[in-house]
Design brief:
CATH topology of the largest domain: N Utilization Substance Protein A, Chain:P, domain 4
Structural class: alpha/beta
CATH superfamily of the largest domain: NusA, N-terminal domain
């Protein structure tokens, strides 16, 4: 194979691959082709001659002791010491002799196999490189153009040199896409599949998507003056975001909402009108639970293991629960506590009073 070195350089430059990796891939292609044409059980190795820029392929034969039956049964793989010394007087048992394989004489079938092997190994190299490139982007927002929606309602997206898929289960309820639409989504994972090759799995329902959208809209988050501590979502309906400020001059909630709600509204629009509540995070569980139940006004909170017992006026209970229970569900997801509501003045509250309870007034007083 004349000037294969030039072909290696050309492939490496065109595909953005390293010369070393392309060289190894092509050497593997030669070895695999030799095995398929001459025998799967035989041993071969390939070397690149830097001067001639040719790939030389050699069949390897193991030197064994005289009388070893393997030399009779498999002469293509083994040779006795006496026979080997006729070729190389310095050879010893355990050494390997190499015989050059002349690929040009193996015929058209071998040439076609070699071509297919080279294509296969170069494609694997490209996929490995893309895999590493996009693996670094997992958890970030990427965008692409919709190419089709399949029979299972999975949305296929063209993203630069790869394709992505937004499965139906990771699509916000009620939203639909058609070819030509530009879609933003979080990169959930990178997959190499035998059928589809390399592709990206996308999601628009993960809390991480909301978090990354806020980073794009709120400079204070990008500059790390405000951090997102917790996120809870019911995609397409409502979400709660707990944020904290690292500067006394910055109101974290105000920074996220923006003037006249411009920042939070931009995020909500991308999420098909999802309602987003921003609350200020607190490391004190009682305060955090109380804030998470906004817009309800809470009287007191008592933490018992994994449960938060919340006392509140009767007229605030419906606000705390929210439509179809969505507010209390999100508050529980956000804080990690099972929340139990107790109406102020009820028998349940009187029972709770028998044990010390931390009120919000006491917490803020501290």
């Amino acid at each position: 194979m004349e000037k294969i070195g030039d072909i290696i350089d050309s492939i490496a430059h065109e595909k953005g691959l390293s010369v070393e990796k392309v060289t190894e891939a092509i050497k593997r292609a030669f070895v695999n082709t030799a095995k398929r044409v001459l025998g799967e059980d035989l041993e071969f190795e390939a070397e690149l001659d830097e001067k001639s820029k040719k790939i030389n392929v050699y069949q390897k034969v193991l030197v064994v002791k005289d009388g070893d039956e393997r030399a009779k049964e498999e002469p293509e793989r083994y040779i006795t010491l006496n026979e080997a010394k006729e070729i190389d007087p310095n050879v010893e048992v355990g050494d390997e002799l190499r015989y050059a394989v002349e690929f040009e004489k193996l015929g058209r079938t071998a040439a076609m196999r070699l071509h297919n092997e080279i294509e296969y190994h170069i494609q694997r190299l490209i996929e490995e490189q893309l895999f590493e490139k996009y693996k670094q982007k997992v958890g970030t927002i990427i965008s692409g153009t919709v190419t089709r929606v399949d029979e299972d309602e999975n949305t296929w997206v063209e993203i630069d040199e790869v394709k992505g898929v937004l499965p139906k289960r990771y699509r916000i309820k009620g939203e639909y896409f058609k070819p030509g639409d530009v879609v933003k989504a979080i990169l959930k994972r990178v997959i190499i599949d035998k059928t589809y090759g390399i592709y990206l799995e996308l999601s628009r329902t993960t809390p991480k998507f909301l978090e990354e959208l806020l980073k794009l809209e709120v400079p204070e988050i990008k500059d790390e003056l405000v951090t997102i501590e917790k996120v809870a979502r019911i995609p397409g309906e409502r979400a709660k975001v707990a944020v904290a400020s690292h500067s006394p001059k910055i109101d974290p909630v105000g920074a996220c909402v923006g003037v006249k709600g411009v920042r939070i509204n931009a995020v909500s629009k991308e999420l098909k009108g999802e309602s987003i509540d921003c609350i200020e995070y607190s490391p004190i569980p009682e305060i955090f639970v109380a804030r998470s139940l906004s817009p309800a006004i809470i009287t007191s909170v008592k933490i018992e293991g994994e449960k938060a017992i919340v006392t509140l006026p009767a007229d605030q209970k419906s606000k705390a629960i929210g439509k179809s229970g969505i507010n209390i569900r999100l508050a529980s997801m956000l804080t990690g506590y099972e929340i139990e509501l107790v109406e102020k003045g009820s028998l349940a509250e009187e029972k709770e009073k028998e044990e010390p309870t931390i009120t919000l007034h006491d917490l803020f007083k501290e």
